[in-house]
Structures are given as structure tokens and as C-alpha cells.
């Protein structure tokens, strides 16, 4: 995957930055019968074959947190295919979304084994309160600058998370993280280049980049909150509060080069890890789940 040069002009990006994501539909009832929906011929990564077949309840819950974050973000990024400011960016964002789907599939497969559910069951047949994604990942695409701001924060957080999770005492989580961190390293570089390109481009692109960071920054705090589950997974899970400093330190040089200040303002109360979500998740899930729910038991 190729990335935009920092020396390119920002005119095209600024012009497309005004594009907003469309509204999504309505949520569905997860208690209705649905049969099994599967995609044939797609194999999971080797780490799930080599690792333990069933996680403990707490490990499964933790894997659900991480899998939901990746799947929701992948669904968001997929919208930009055919809508990005450059053809090259259609491909880049699509490939990032595919990376995230791969992470989500491995994590949800591992999480679902504890309750005898497949990754597809978890993706398509849960309603909003059963999801554990953090609010940052649920925020709308908005314009292109908003999407880049969300991706910049998310990729730096995920890189620090997977870098440490690769040393987890749980062999399966460690193997998933060791693979994911290599891909997320590209994601954060891609986002950093776009932050610079937009912030140092035209007056319009700079204003949109500042606005995007300001709108997304309130959701940063939730990423670093230590929920009670973390106390029960010492040596297995990564303590979120330990990620704040390295993630902030990683973003700081990019913000300085872009001549941007770290936003200040209100902090979102969050709650996604407990099933308390923003108003954006329900419509997103409705769009993602509609085909599986319209054709229960289908195989393709």
C-alpha cells in the first residue's frame, strides 16, 4: 500500500473534506432466530489453530473489547471506498479496513469460543448493549479530515496496545497482537502523513484538520481507563492507563510538525466497555448486519 507524500498539495483533500457520511438504518433484535451465516473459503490466521481453543470468561470479554473496536472502525473506513479524495486513497483506506477486519475476526473467534459462538454470530447477531467498542471508534466519519483525526488517534493507541499485548501470558492474544502491530504501524504512519498534509496545506484543509481533532479528542480519555476487568487479567491484558503516555508521546511530534496544539475541552464520559454507547453505534450496526439478518442461514 502506498501513502501520500508530505510534499503534495492539499487542494484535492480540502475539496473533498466537506463530504459527509450518509445516515445509516435502524438496529435489529438479537433474540430472533437466525441460523448460521458464513463466508466460505476464508481461513483464520494460524495463531488460532496453534493457541488454546477456548478462552476463560474474562479473557473472552477482553478479546471482545478489542475485536469490537477493530470491527467498528473497519466498518467506518469501508464507507470511503470510491469516496476518498484520490484513487490511491480509496485503495489505502480499503486495505486498512481489511487489516482491521482480520484483527477483529481473530479476536472475535477467540472470544466466541467461550460461549460457543462464531465470529459471524458476534458480528451480526448482537444488539447495541452487547457491544464493547469504545466511543472513539463509533464517531461518524464526518469529512475526510475528521476521519483522519479519528484514525490518527486510533492507530497510535492500537500500536501501543498491540506492542505490549504481544508479551501477554495468553499465547493466542500474544500471537494476534504480534501480527496486528506490524499492520497498525503502517496505519499510524499513513494517518500522520495525512495530518501533516491537511494541516500544512490550504487554509481550508488546515481549518478542517483543527476541527476534526477538536471534535474527536474528547473521546481519547476512555481509551486509557482501567476497568475492573483489567485487575482480573494481570499479565494477560494490557493496563490501559499505561498506554496514555507512550501514545501521547508518539502523537506529539506529528502535532508539532503540523503546527497543531493538543485540543483542550470537555471529556466524554465514555462507557462503551460496559455497553453504554453513543447514538452512532446503533445505525452503524443496522447497516453492517442488515444482509445477514435479511437472509438468515445463508452461505456465500
TrEMBL record:
Taxonomically, the superkingdom here is Bacteria
Entry-linked InterPro entries = Aromatic_CoA_ox/epox, Ferritin-like, Ferritin-like_SF, PaaA_PaaC, PaaC
Q: Which GO terms describe its biological process?
A: phenylacetate catabolic process
Q: Which GO terms describe its cellular component?
A: cytosol
Q: Which PANTHER family match?
A: 1,2-PHENYLACETYL-COA EPOXIDASE, SUBUNIT C (PTHR30458:SF0), PHENYLACETIC ACID DEGRADATION PROTEIN PAA (PTHR30458)
Q: What is this protein called?
A: Phenylacetate-CoA oxygenase subunit PaaI
What is the native source organism of this protein?
Answer: Cryobacterium algoritolerans
